[in-house]
Amino acid sequence: GFTVVEGDFLKFRDETGFDFFVMNPPFNAKGDPVAYATHIEHARSMLRHKNGAIVSVVPDFTRDMLSATRE
C-alpha cells in the first residue's frame, strides 16, 4: 500500500526519503512565480536514491525552456 500525505509540501520533511514522487505542483504562488520548480527541487531533495523518479505536471512553456538548453 501507499501512504498519502496531505499538508504544506514545502514544510514536509522525511529522513527516510522516497523512491518516487507523482505530483501536480502549483505553477506559481504568491511570491514564487516558479513554484512548480521549487516543489520539484524539494521533491528531489527527498529522493532516497539517485535513480529515484519524479513525475510532475509542469507548465507548457517548460518544454520550450528545456529544448533551448539542449540546443
List keywords for this structure.
single chain, two-stranded parallel ribbon, alpha+beta, 2 strands, 71 residues, 11% strand
In short:
This protein is an alpha+beta fold. The chain is built from 2 helices and 2 strands. It is 30% helix and 11% strand.
Describe the 3D structure:
This protein has 71 residues and is an alpha+beta fold. The protein has helices spanning 35-45, 61-70, and strands at residues 20-23, 53-56. Strands 1-2 form a two-stranded parallel ribbon. Strand 1 (20-23), helix 1 and strand 2 (53-56) form a beta-alpha-beta unit.
Walk me through the topology:
Layout: E1 20-23, H1 35-45, E2 53-56, H2 61-70
Parallel strand pairs: 1-2
In DSSP terms (H or I, runs of 4 or more residues), the helix count works out at 2
Q: Output the strand order for the largest sheet.
A: 1-2
Provide the helix percentage: 25-40%
Distance between the termini: 42 Å
Largest sheet: 2 strands, parallel
The stretches of 5 or more residues where confidence is low (pLDDT under 50) are none
Shape: globular
Strand fraction: 5-15%
Rounded Rg:
13 Å
Mean pLDDT: 86
Order of helices and strands: EHEH
Structure classification: alpha+beta
Total DSSP E strands: 2
